[in-house]
Amino acid sequence: MMAYRYDDQNVFARILRGEIPCKKVRESTHALAFHDIAPQAPVHVLVIPKGPYVTYDHFALEASEDEIVDFTRMVGEICAMTEVQPGMGGGGYRMVANSGEAAIQDVPHLHVHILGGRLLGRMLRDPGT
């Protein structure tokens, strides 16, 4: 299948093994959500799968249906818990998953950032400016 090699010594693997503490928000069978150690917004929660997936495409192509559903539900639960859901009166949120070198992925374990609680501005600069 994919040519991804998982480094089981990355910081998120170590968090999952309990070697490094985290400020846990929620945990399920296949996913863990915790506060970012250097928050960029009032709400800044990371959601990671418990399986050894490097990027979102790796996860989407190789994870089981149970893992994919559980991870996706966790994202929704975190948005509800942090009250950022625009459909429920929240101001909205940004979900970011950096994948690979060009996107500056710092940790080689799939993780999504859920950011909210303030106006976040445009994600990318308008190419016309």
From TrEMBL:
Q: Print the keywords alphabetically.
A: Hydrolase
Active site residues according to the UniProt entry? 111
GO molecular function term, any single one: hydrolase activity
Q: Which Pfam families match?
A: HIT (PF01230)
Q: Where is the HIT domain?
A: 11-129
What InterPro entries does this protein map onto? Histidine_triad_CS (IPR019808), Histidine_triad_HIT (IPR001310), HIT-like (IPR011146), HIT-like_sf (IPR036265)
Chain positions of motif Histidine triad motif: 109-113
Show which residues constitute the signal peptide: none
Spell out the protein name for this chain. Diadenosine tetraphosphate (Ap4A) hydrolase
Q: Which organism is it from?
A: Thalassovita litoralis
* Record lineage: Bacteria, Pseudomonadati, Pseudomonadota, Alphaproteobacteria, Rhodobacterales
